[in-house]
Amino acid sequence: MPDSMKQNKANNKLYALPLILGLLGMFFQFKKDKRDALITGLLFFFTGLAIVVYLNMPGNMPRERDYAFVGSFYAFAIWIGLGVLYVRELISKFAPANIANYAAAAICTLAVPVLMANQEWDDHNRGKKTIARDLATDYLESCAPNAIVISFGDNDTYPLWYAQEVEGIRRDVRVINSSLLGIDWYINQLRYKINQSDPIDAIWTADQIEGAKRDGVYFVQNPAFDQNQFMDMYTMMKDWAGSDDPTKVRPVGDGISINTYPTKKVTVPVDVNLVKSNGTVNADDSVVNELRFEIPKNVLQKNDAAILNIIAANKWKRPIYFTSERISLGFDRYIRQDGMAYRLVPVEGDDVNRVWVADKMMNKFVFGSADKAGVYFDEENRRHLNSIRLAYATAAASLAEHGKKEEAKKLLNKCDKGMLEENFSYGMVARFQQHNYISLQFLEACYKAGDTTLAQKVSRSVKKDLQQQLAYYAKLGDMSVEDLQKGLAQSMQIRYQQERDNFLSNLTNKLRFVYDDAERGYQFLNGLEAMEEQYKNPKPAIPAEIQQQINNMPAAKPDSPNK
């Protein structure tokens, strides 16, 4: 087993003693009073197994859902308590009653509560952990004054709300949960000033979004509109999608009509002087006169349409940010990293706002107490810490590529010192090898910045973990590491699913179910070694005098014989 799993504080050994004690209590209750056992059993069933069937939860969830089954925990706790009485009864056969009482209490206390506290306290203690608040701080401090930040999902949004409402952090920023934008009352809340955040124009009136109105706006080609032309997005959302004109809606039967938009190609005009004066762009940016993009969807749900409305109506007056760089509404190429948040800018192809991130990430960012010894971060915590590490890697790489290597080094070392190796190692087992993937990006940023000392630290940790993972997978497959690597190299050449299924069928069951992770680990290990070789022995640059001799112009077309 890799050290990152073996030495993980959540690698607890309870020897099934709580389960055994509960089963003993279940047997004891059934033996003593079958009617009482039936009542407890029904409580356990209907608040446990029946809930599983009733909720029918999907496999991949954003967080643990143990709280859905808490009733069954109470029922099982009853059996654990009765298990103590059963142990007392067993001991009383060999000892006086008073001794049996004390002995049963002592044995069961040591076997269950004390053992559980000893094994699980270190990975359940949240006394020093501040990752939720600090993650929110990093998002909010990434934003310019009076910004709008659109978040995706509860895990992004709740910490932001807490930081603002409880801690009073950056109350000038308007946090908008994209999931709630599909509800009329939430959109209507945008029309009011909240804290120090000004109202937002949502284009559509309260009546136009009431209830199920415009829950979906459908793309329907209109012969009167040239599909090769770009349409102003404000006009499209207000005068087409926001109109109930019979010529702009589509009847679908039973007197019901759906709202439509006539083209996917839209434009957002840019007031160049405004965006330069209010800090939307930097002085050296190449500003476009308009955003041009194509909406990639045939149906705009109300929340997607609301985001487009906010952008169109804003007219570059306020900064607009997102907590993700992938919005999937067509304008992703105009998104630029400003730290943890991603800003909509009228600049194309510039991935990082280098001046901004160098300041904010050095002076404002915090790390959820990952810099304090002994703080444990579970899988979901590590995912958020990885988001911070990735932001630093991306920002530092961009700085290094633009000749600012010293600033890049400072950023990388700030992140390294903010996340102790004992709390958050660079090499670690994770779903889809995501942890090591991000660490490899951090490693490449170290190489680009010329920080060989930090690069060696990162490389050593990731390489060790990947090698241990391959040894572990080889053990699951009852083969040597060399044979596993040969198999992985072979399987990566397979192009057809049927051939791959046949290949996997020859593996042991234990290896078959983790084979994708083994493949990624093998790829990453090869990639890491190639990266080390690349930066250890960089290819020599082509001398300037030779570059001038190279003609990259395409060859001239031969004259037409008809000339």
Descriptive notes:
Helices cover 51% and strands 8% of the residues. With 563 residues, the protein is an alpha/beta fold. A hairpin with a 2-residue loop joins strand 5 (249-253) and strand 6. Helix 16 (434-449) runs antiparallel to helix 17 (452-476).
Low-confidence segments, given as residue ranges, are 546-563
Distance between the termini: 75 Å
Q: Looking at the structure, what is the overall shape? A: globular
Please work out how many helical segments DSSP would assign: 22
Overall pLDDT, averaged? 91
How many β-strand stretches?
Answer: 12
Q: Rg to the nearest angstrom?
A: 30 Å
Strand arrangement, major sheet: 2-1-10-12-11
Reported for the largest beta sheet, the result is: 5 strands, mixed
Name the helicity range: 40-55%
Set down the secondary structure blueprint.
Blueprint: H1 3-6, H2 17-32, H3 34-46, H4 49-55, H5 70-92, H6 97-124, H7 131-141, E1 148-151, H8 154-165, E2 174-177, H9 184-189, E3 216-219, E4 231-232, H10 233-240, E5 249-253, E6 256-261, E7 265-269, H11 272-277, E8 290-294, E9 299-301, H12 302-314, E10 320-322, E11 335-337, E12 342-344, H13 354-363, H14 379-401, H15 405-418, H16 434-449, H17 452-476, H18 481-491, H19 497-505, H20 509-512, H21 515-536, H22 544-549
Parallel strand pairs: 1-2, 1-10, 3-6, 4-7
Antiparallel strand pairs: 3-9, 5-6, 7-8, 10-12, 11-12
